[in-house]
Specification:
Elements: H1 3-11, H2 15-28, H3 32-77, H4 96-101, H5 121-131
């Protein structure tokens, strides 16, 4: 087992070293155009990979949300649970009243909430809490 490396040294240049020499010669013969072409190819490959990754990520997110919505719809149609109010929201805010109507009766919801127009409602709330 130990004799193999020694035998290779005694036999002279091997196929491995001649392959390394050929590679070194090819590398030395590269021109600026070859280097620019390789860099352009690498950049194009990186861009394509990034685009593919972004597309896959967007598709995954879209599929996830569609699947989640389908699960909720399946549950509500099976009668096991009532459909969540956010399933019927419109883009124009049509579901807002449904949420307000579904609040517990112990919560005093004011449709004309003055904090909605206050420049700093959180600070105002903290101040009123301190005052009692």
């Amino acid at each position: 087992m130990r004799a193999e490396p020694i035998r290779r040294l005694l036999e002279g240049p091997s196929a491995e070293s001649s392959a390394a020499e050929r590679w070194a010669e090819e590398f030395a013969d590269l021109t600026d155009a070859d280097v620019e072409k390789a860099a352009a190819t690498a950049a194009a490959t990186a861009t394509a990979a990034a685009t593919a990754t972004a597309t896959a990520r967007a598709t995954y997110k879209e599929d996830f949300w569609k699947s989640l919505e389908k699960d909720w719809e399946d549950l509500s149609s099976a009668g096991e649970n009532e459909a969540p109010s956010w399933l019927s929201f419109d883009d124009d805010g049509g579901g807002y009243d449904d949420v307000a109507d579904g609040l517990p009766s112990s919560y005093d919801f004011r449709r004309d909430n003055p904090a909605m127009r206050h420049p700093s409602p959180l600070e105002e709330g903290k101040k009123r809490l301190q005052e009692g």
